[in-house]
Design a protein that fits this description.
Largest sheet: 12 strands, mixed
Strand content: 15-25%
Shape: globular
Structural class: alpha/beta
CATH superfamily of the largest domain: ANL, N-terminal domain
Number of helices: 13
Number of strands: 20
Helix content: 25-40%
Mean pLDDT: 93
Low-confidence stretches: 441-445
Distance between the termini: 49 Å
Bound molecules: zinc ion
């Protein structure tokens, strides 16, 4: 596809000012109108959606306000797979101009079809993101995301064309050529996975270049894998750039879902704007399916408000993050999402808060008395509240005969766990080594092996 360039004053901080700074109430009204239209359309024109909605007792007429979104049944990866290959596609197949796909490593892939209009809107979202981090018309943008079935390379390619920049479709895995291009051409910005960026920086050093001095790069965009702030600092030093985080899922055409703005700081919990005029982002408690409060951790659920090719609606991502509508200093009104913390399959919800076994491990490991294993036990007490007990193995059974040590240690562990998870274990029970049942091979680090959830569902 050739994307038409749309002109914008390079001095404007926003590519689409009216949309990016739309008052929140107006933005939410737009979301509701688009949601109603989308759901009504799929119900009336696609037998797959009609069957699912009828079975759940949901009718699009039930949508009276945006809060009613909770009435719409979730889509899961498994249910979407049942729609393979084209049952979810809405509209005439002859209208499709591009298809992308998830990897399908754990079963049938999810195929995503896009119409000309879907691609056009995708270009807009990516243009906004590139503009937001400082790319302007005439700039050269080096794109090292893969061009193929996953959407990586295409989103920013279209976005760069839309805003009048020049994308170089390097695609993935070509570190030598990337170094050459960065040294030989006046490249303004690039995108890469964080690990590939580090690799390219190292390659450049081996070739005798210092990209912070020998390239003209000012900005970089990174995504597709988790990267701590320290990695960002390292990339910024290696390339002499300001590095930004972006996040997208292939199911929603990847890049162009969420991206950091220039106002982001290390301290900001939620750094990435999610484009609310195209996507409805929800954050839910993965156990109950109910919405969590603004800024609280939960599972991200996404609805495509504008895509008509493959309109995923209330799609459970299993990604854990948080979402806030708090005003951002950059002036954009679209909500912000935190970087993905982990998968909901690996977490447990206690008293409405998400707890990862890995967090508990992080809290307990500094104690020299700690043995090899622990177990999180969650029960329901008489008042119907969650009761959180932690069983911790000690290195040596002899510790248990020292009553004062046991008492003090249990208290300190309690405090350490509370500090990391925000949830207070009611009881920390210390036990001898090897008293907990061993996890079967391969599941030692998963939630199922470290969490004993005895609550009635
Ligand atoms: Zn912002």
């Amino acid at each position: 596809m050739q994307i038409k360039t749309r002109k914008q004053d390079p001095k404007s901080p926003y590519f689409q000012p009216d949309i990016e700074t739309m008052p929140v109430e107006k933005l939410k009204k737009l979301q509701f109108d688009l949601l109603k239209k989308q759901v009504t359309n799929v119900y009336n024109s696609n037998p797959y959606f009609k069957k699912v909605y009828d079975a759940a007792g949901f009718n699009p007429k039930d949508l009276k306000s945006l809060d009613d979104v909770v009435k719409i049944p979730f889509m899961e990866k498994s249910t979407v797979r049942e729609g393979y290959p084209t049952k979810i596609v809405t509209g005439d197949m002859g209208q499709m101009r591009e298809m992308h796909s998830t990897s399908g490593t754990t079963g049938k892939p999810v195929l995503i079809f896009a119409t000309e209009n879907d691609i056009d809107l995708w270009a807009d979202r990516n243009a906004r993101e590139l503009w937001m981090v400082g790319v302007r018309p005439g700039h050269i943008f080096l794109n090292s995301f893969g061009y193929g079935l996953p959407t990586g390379g295409f989103g920013f390619h279209y976005g760069a064309q839309r805003m009048g920049a020049c994308p170089i479709p390097l695609s993935g895995g070509q570190s030598d050529r990337m170094v050459d291009i960065l040294v030989d051409l006046p490249v303004h910005s690039f995108c890469a996975t964080p690990s590939f960026a580090l690799y390219v920086g190292q390659k450049a050093h081996e070739k005798g270049f210092d990209l912070a001095k020998d390239s003209t790069c000012k900005v970089s965009l990174h995504g597709a894998e988790p990267w701590p702030w320290a990695t960002r600092v390292k990339i910024e030093e290696l390339f002499g750039v300001t590095a930004y985080d972006e996040f997208g899922m292939t199911e929603f055409l990847g890049p162009g879902m969420t991206c950091e703005c220039e106002a982001r700081t290390e301290e900001m919990p939620q750094k990435m704007h999610a484009w609310a005029d195209h996507l409805l982002a929800e954050c839910i408690n993965p156990d109950t399916g109910k919405p969590v409060g603004d800024g609280q951790d939960g599972e991200m659920v996404w609805t495509y408000l504008v895509n008509t090719g493959t309109p995923l609606i209330r799609y459970r991502s299993r990604d854990l993050a948080s979402l806030t509508w708090e005003v951002c200093p950059c002036g954009r009104t679209h909500p912000r999402m935190a970087a993905i913390k982990g998968r909901s399959d690996d977490a447990v919800s206690i008293s409405g808060l998400i707890v990862f076994p890995s967090q508990v491990e992080e809290a307990l490991t500094p104690f020299p008395e700690m043995g090899a294993n622990f177990r999180i036990i969650v029960e329901t007490d008489q008042r119907g509240m969650d009761l959180f007990t932690l069983k911790v193995e000690l290195k040596d059974k002899a510790y248990l005969s020292d009553e004062n040590l046991v008492k003090g240690l249990a208290q300190k562990m309690k405090e350490a766990v509370k500090a990391v998870t925000d949830v207070n274990p009611k009881v920390v029970e210390l036990i001898g080594p090897d008293e907990l049942p061993r996890a079967t091979k391969g599941e030692g680090k998963t939630a199922s092996a470290r969490v004993d959830d005895r609550r009635k569902k």
